[in-house]
Automatic annotation (TrEMBL):
Classification of source organism: unclassified sequences, metagenomes, ecological metagenomes
Protein name per its UniProtKB record: TIGR03016 family PEP-CTERM system-associated outer membrane protein
Source organism per UniProt: wastewater metagenome
Length: 436
């Protein structure tokens, strides 16, 4: 028998809806700062569906995107949204309206003591881990996560922490789940920029439709953490402890819980960072993963629909250098994924290099190259992906820009049907401004 019992889903959905409406209204009422873009893109590609049997097509995209931010007073909020209509002239891929949303808000009912958090992420994800990037093999996913947090002051530098969350994950397939979480712990502030924590956390995950891969489970974590987020060129966030997972009808599984990030800014224009993690996660956990010093970077692994619990070992290195007229970034990574209820175990390694340079007061040049190897450990398949792109942006006015880009990608695979190659040319007109 599950230790947590079950809660009726209509009650959960009602709480999520009320929290979402409240969170978005609070952001809108706060007169936040932000930026927006309206864009029209025309792309020619010689392999629109990214398949071995290449099919060329013209793609027209019309959309709008924006970023809102508000920090101060009773509200901390970050919103990012993009909606675009995608039309394929030759119907090689089905036309679609693509929406992506990230809403991360916290309203302080009592300053720095009692708050309510609301998180919503809507994204397009792959239907399988093998084909996560194929335009014709994707579906929408939405994760909503909300609940209260409280800090009871035990002294000048000590707090007792309590928190709770309820969430729902929606997929277009039958992979929906409801999850409940609670945590408690102790926090000690060593100085104004650093703190030490000891946290216990419990989580219950219930799938709408159970199957051989969608198995309800309970998870328990106990860990200590330390972080420094200012006051020094060296900053870090580290957690170390143990996790226990109890899958319905199976033996419990104990594993190391380790999640750490460190950055070093030697001088204002140079940033070096690293991440090391050994932890349980799943498709929902990856959609929720926006914490940490390296927040804002694209995920290393492609997001895909999934119900399996995963134990991942992740290692990342990151470098950024900024100068008055150019920037350069490099990122290397290795990820080992152990799927608990699916035969999709794999390891991923890769390197990405990108940069930009200002050519004049009106023109900017940008580029990226990458290589990635994906090895599926339980069957004979290894994919090697390579890509390169170059873009040129010309400012026609203070708010109007013209952008052109060319790109080339290729996948070499042990499975002939999985191989593909694509060349594309893009031209875009972008109108954007600030909401300040």
């Amino acid at each position: 028998m599950r230790a947590w019992g079950r809660v009726r889903r209509p009650c959960v959905s009602g709480w999520l809806l009320l929290s979402g409406v409240w969170g978005l209204c609070a952001v809108a009422a706060a007169a936040p700062r932000g930026d927006y873009n309206v864009f029209l893109e025309q792309t020619y590609t010689d392999n629109a569906p990214l398949e071995a049997d290449a099919q060329s097509d013209w793609l027209t995209v019309l959309g709008v995107e924006g970023v809102l931010s508000e920090h101060g007073g009773r509200l901390d909020a970050d919103l990012r949204a993009r909606v675009a209509r995608e039309e394929y002239y030759r119907n090689t891929v089905e036309d679609d309206t693509a929406l992506s949303l990230l809403a991360d808000t916290r309203f302080w009912l009592r300053p720095r003591t009692l708050s309510w958090a609301f998180y919503d992420r809507f994204a397009r994800v792959g239907e399988t881990v093998e084909d996560a990037e194929r335009p014709g093999a994707q579906q929408n996913a939405n994760v909503v996560w909300t609940g209260p947090d409280a800090a009871f002051h035990l002294g000048p530098v000590d707090d007792w922490l309590l928190g709770g969350r309820v969430g729902h994950t929606y997929f277009e397939s039958d992979a929906d789940s409801v999850r409940y979480a609670a945590n408690t712990g102790w926090r000690h502030r060593t100085d104004e920029n650093a703190e030490l924590t000891v946290i216990g956390r419990a989580q219950q995950v219930d799938f709408k439709e159970q199957s051989d891969t969608a198995i309800d489970y309970d998870r328990y974590d106990l860990f200590a953490g330390h972080q420094r987020t200012g006051g020094s060129p060296l900053q870090w966030r580290a957690q170390l402890g143990m996790s226990r997972v109890e899958l319905d009808g199976r033996d419990s599984d104990d594993a190391l819980l380790l999640d750490s990030e460190v950055t070093y800014r030697r001088s204002a224009p140079t940033l070096v960072g690293a991440r090391l993690a050994h932890q349980y996660t799943d498709a929902t956990g990856r959609l929720l993963d926006t914490s940490g010093i390296l927040r804002g970077l694209e995920p290393v692994t492609d997001l895909s629909v999934g119900t399996s619990l995963i134990y991942e070992r992740r290692y990342e290195l990151f470098f950024r250098r900024e100068a008055p007229i150019w920037t350069a970034e490099a990122r290397g990574y290795y990820v080992d994924e152990d799927f608990k209820t699916e035969d999709s175990d794999r390891d991923i390694s890769g390197l990405r290099l990108s940069g930009s340079r200002s050519l004049s007061a009106r023109a900017d040049l940008g580029g990226e190259v990458y290589g990635e190897r994906i090895h599926y450990q339980l069957f004979e398949r290894e994919d090697k992906d390579y890509g390169a792109s170059v873009s040129l942006t010309w400012r026609l006015g203070s708010e109007l820009r013209l952008r052109g880009a060319v790109g080339h990608i290729v996948r070499n695979s042990d499975v002939d049907a999985a191989e593909y190659e694509e060349n594309r040319v893009l031209i875009a007109l972008v109108y954007g401004g600030s909401l300040d």
